[in-house]
Specification:
Structural class: alpha/beta
Number of strands: 12
CATH class: Alpha Beta
Mean pLDDT: 91
CATH architecture: 3-Layer(aba) Sandwich
CATH topology: Rossmann fold
Strand order of the largest sheet: 6-7-8-3-9-10
Largest sheet: 6 strands, mixed
Length: about 240
């Protein structure tokens, strides 16, 4: 079996914010590695630092001190323009609130990340959108407006939009938070399938059941990494295996 390469390496990472001279420490000396193709969940109670960590890992924020290696390069040394380019090329986002344009078709919502991609022809962009739509099983809905869709369908659109650029990582931030349990399971099974196909998935959730679709859970408490454990009884295709 071929050993997977390290995609992300975090070493002694700290994050603090200063407001009116008051310093708030959020993350304290985190250390972990995420490998290519891994399905990882980040858990923890409110205020544990989950969102801050996700923002740093996805290039939306910077650590205060420490090392963040992405594909072997220390992103702390990158300027904002380089980080923005990396974010567009390497990261796909799936949010709890879907973040779709309501009076825009499914097809055009998914195409949004490709608008500023100048190296790809219009025909190729359309092919990429069609491929992403098929990956989430929404072929029959591509010309519907997003406000005509159910919650589960909206989240499928959000996943397709995250996929369309063929990113290295998909960040899923509470992707089942606005869905009923059955629909939530269907969404998690799509992410599970993408993981099986080799995508790196980083899931942020407070739900233990949802986290158990992943291979491994990082549990944060008060900004510290309390546990880093493999999932022994994963949910596979709706079953525990």
């Amino acid at each position: 079996m071929v050993s997977k390469k390290a995609l992300i390496e975090i070493k002694d990472l700290h994050k603090e914010y200063e407001t009116d001279g008051v310093i708030t420490k959020v993350l304290h000396g985190l250390n972990f590695v995420i490998k290519e193709g891994e399905f990882l969940a980040i858990m923890g109670p409110s205020g544990s630092g989950k969102s801050t960590l996700m923002n740093i890992l996805s290039f939306l924020d910077r650590p205060t001190t420490g090392t963040y290696l992405f594909k072997g390069k220390n992103i702390i040394k990158f300027d904002d323009d380089t980080l923005a380019h990396l974010r567009n090329a390497e990261i796909g986002f799936v949010f709890q609130q879907f973040n779709l344009l309501p009076r825009t078709s499914v097809f055009d919502n998914i195409k949004l990340p490709l608008i500023y991609t100048k190296k790809v022809t219009e025909d190729k962009k359309n092919q990429l959108v069609t491929k992403a739509i098929k990956a989430v099983g929404l072929d029959h809905r591509e010309q519907n407006l997003s406000n005509q869709l159910s919650g589960g369908e909206k989240q499928r659109v959000a996943i397709a939009r995250a996929l369309v650029n063929d990113p290295s990582i998909i960040f899923a931030d509470e992707p089942t938070g606005n869905l009923d349990s059955k629909t939530g399971s269907q969404i998690m099974e799509i992410l599970e399938k993408l993981s099986d196909e080799g995508k790196t998935i980083i899931l942020v959730t407070h739900e233990k059941y949802t986290a158990e679709y992943s291979e491994r859970i990082l549990f944060l408490r008060d900004g510290r990494l309390e546990r880093d454990t493999a999932v022994k009884n994963r949910h596979r295709n709706g079953l525990i295996k």
